[in-house]
Write a structure and sequence with these properties.
Length: 277
Amino acid sequence: MATVYIKPGTGTGTGTLADPYFYSQLSSAETAAGSGGTIYFTDGAYDFTSDVTWAADGVTYQSLNPLGAVLTRTGLSSGNTSGELEIAGSGNSTAPSVKNFKIVNMRVWFYQPSGLTGDNTPLLQGCDISSTTDLLTGTGVLRVVNGTLGYPVRILNNSIHWKFGSSDAFLGTRLNDSTVEGNSFYFDLGSVSGTIAFASSIFTSSKNNIFMSSDNAKMGSDSKAASSTNCCFYQFHSGNTSGGTDNVFADPQFVDAPNADLRLRPTSPCIGARTAS
């Protein structure tokens, strides 16, 4: 295993911090890093025109500076199905990890993480995921696909702000038995007609998450408070005002939720409400 570096664009580099690989050399970077290695993405915009798959066995794909590397999908307009960052686990003996990126107009989908358990499941951590226009999600901003229910993944400490583009969009599906902890979610439902739901097969349990929508009336009834611990729910369906274990049902007081700033104000009731266990 090794640590290598990569930067946006096309060209030839050697993978050092002084002379990073170019993104066009991703396969060389994956080989050089090897299982257990890390590819650090230097600051800048990694602009894609098609879906992206990161699947090297045991490799950590990580922004060198938190949120400094920006993954974005161009060419999208209102009502489009967004592009994907695909974290593929099929056939891996050790799952890949994705950490600390700013991700714009791209869903994050996990592909067939079969046979992987515990700390060896695909990991999405410390990322800021948002859409700049109302986009269709194709049944999930976050989703496990090409597999049966019960393939676990880890979704930890991310900020997710999504402008939904229709009533058939969901946060995610097939995330049963996954570890979903420490995330902040804001659903911008301004363009939704009807209601939006999580989907029945998401979040067997969740912990230390904050869930907020822009419109209480557009949230479906399956909002999962009953299976959550130390989470905050606000404007998440009129019947979703109690239940679960040590949950908070109040405005989390994001700094500027409509503009994707999901930091908490000093007076937020969510501060100190999480559990360490």
